[in-house]
Structure formats: structure tokens, C-alpha cells
Write a structure and sequence with these properties.
CATH topology: Jelly Rolls
Radius of gyration: 20 Å
Oligomer: single chain
Number of strands: 9
Strand order of the largest sheet: 6-5-8-3-2-1-9
Helix content: under 10%
Low-confidence stretches: 3-14
Number of domains: 1
Number of helices: 2
Length: about 140
């Protein structure tokens, strides 16, 4: 009589924890945009973003990374962060302009530019920085 071969039981899959960063003790759950494709898509066509959520763009090296609001349906605060985790620039309450939706000759979409090189860019809901007293010089933990 053959004895059954016991197969090891796979442990239950461990649910991935949501990545997050902290600024001034404020936890922000983040989606990571670390590929060119994810960075190009960003928060396009989203109609909402939870109040403690954001998108963290991770670049290979520090550089000058301007952003525009093409097809972004929600106003945002854009936070540029250097490789040491220090906030170096913030554009608050960015707005979508008509150039992002309509191909109009001579119409140029507004571009939001940092004042210093950054390795990371964090997009959160508009007014998030004001509500949470986030400012240039603050440190972002969890990068």
C-alpha cells in the first residue's frame, strides 16, 4: 500500500502593507510612481484622492522635475523632496487649465516648477500642506 506524500502547506499570503511616508507626524498612504509609465500617468483622470493619500514619484537621481496638470481632475499640492528627505519646494492648490483638455493652437498648459533639485515628488490633495502646516524645510520620513 502506498503512503500519501504530504505536501507542505503554504502559509496564508501576507497582505502587502500600504507604503506610507510621514511629514510632521502626519501619515500619508502613497502609491509609488517609480517607472516612466507610472510617472506619465500619475493621477490623471482620477476624480478623488482620499484625504490622507498621495502619489510619490521616485526618480533615479536628483534633478529639476516640473509637473503639469494634464487630464488631472483634482487640484493638488505638489511637494518636491531632495535625496536627504527635505522638502525643497511646494506648489499649493494647483489647478487644471483648459489647455490640458482642449488642443488649442497657441495654448500652453501651466507647468509647476520646483525651486531646487529633488529626487522625490509627492502629490496630495489641494490645501493638504496648509491643513497640516507642511512647509519647505520639513523632513519626510519613510522614503
Amino acid at each position: 500500500m502506498l503512503k500519501p506524500v504530504l505536501q507542505p502547506i503554504e502559509p496564508p499570503s501576507i497582505k502587502q502593507k500600504q507604503p506610507f511616508v510621514k511629514i510632521n507626524s502626519v501619515k500619508i498612504d502613497v502609491e509609488i510612481a517609480d517607472t516612466k509609465e507610472k510617472q506619465e500617468l500619475g493621477l490623471m483622470n482620477r476624480t478623488k484622492l482620499c484625504s490622507t493619500c498621495g502619489m510619490l514619484f521616485v526618480f533615479d537621481k536628483e534633478g529639476f522635475y516640473p509637473f503639469w496638470m494634464k487630464n488631472t481632475l483634482i487640484s493638488l499640492d505638489i511637494i518636491w523632496i531632495n535625496s536627504a528627505g527635505k522638502i525643497v519646494s511646494i506648489s499649493k492648490n494647483t489647478k487644471v487649465d483648459n489647455c490640458d483638455y482642449i488642443s488649442t493652437p497657441g495654448c500652453q498648459p501651466k507647468v509647476y516648477k520646483p525651486t531646487a533639485f529633488a529626487k522625490y515628488v509627492l502629490e496630495v490633495n489641494a490645501s493638504f500642506c496648509n491643513k497640516n502646516s507642511i512647509k519647505v524645510g520639513d523632513i519626510v520620513y519613510g522614503l
